[in-house]
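Students often ask why we bother encoding 3D structure as a string. The short answer is that it lets us treat folding as translation between two languages. Here is a chain of 315 residues written in the first language.
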Amino acid sequence: MEHCFVVHGRLSKKQRTAVFAALDALDESAPRVILATGRLIGEGFDHPPLDTLVLGMPISWKGTLQQYAKALIDGNAIWTELKADLELLSFGKCWYSEAREKVSHYHVDHFRPKKQCMDANGSITCGYWWLAYDWKNYRVSGSVINTAKRDKFAVYRNRAEGPDTPIEDELIYLLDPLNRDDVCLLTFNNNGEAMPLNPDEDAWDHKRAMYTIDVLDLNNAKLRRARKIKWKEISQAIDTINAYQKQYNEQPSVRLQTQLHEFKKRTRELISPTSELSCTYRACLRASREDWAIDILQTHFNIEQLQQEYRESMG
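And here it is in the second language, the structure alphabet:
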């Protein structure tokens, strides 16, 4: 290794200053290794290009390891470089709310908080520092949602406490937007309110949905208002299609058949993954219980094609 720096207690203050100056002078992309004790470059040490921590001996106190990991994370937020690609996956929508940010910037949220976690009772525990650079832990979030979420991440059972503990064994409260089964646990009503699909307050699914609505502030005034508008829009489309369907069955014609086809085509576009708040449209269609609406909900979308079209539309 060309750039290897050793920092130990026998170095004078001047020598240590020279080592740190040489570190800072390196090109950001140049590989480097620092061998040092925690007392010398533990708390307060900041060198953004560092992205790996190797322990030379065991640490008895977990807080010390958390402190070292936090220093590494704070100075190296490289996940922001993935923001554009992550936004593409959701067609420019917040992964939690399905709303599009029109003024504020998106955040790259760590689904499992990287530094510390707040449990359901408000107690603070160590975060998932070992997932700080795991792209599978990233979610694109609107600024309001991410501010509300912060470090909140309650675990009902089997909380992982380190890289050797499988997160797959955790029973978590927060619904994951990447988990199809989790997404299906939320629905919406005509007032634009997010609500649990399962009405049984004692059911685990209900508790998870309520926790998610509360933690992410999914029923804030702006979101409720936006969903209410979407619900009204799709309700009018349902009434129009029902009227044309009735007329077509009584007095069939090519003209009515064509118009029905166009109305249903537009409705399918509303529930496309590219559509803002598409889950609200879906909830309204499902609530109508119309056979044709249920059929539309079964529409298969070519995600790769839609992403390619979205990428081209964004230039």
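Translate back mentally: The CA atoms of residues 68 and 170 lie 25 Å apart. Keep this in mind for the problem set.
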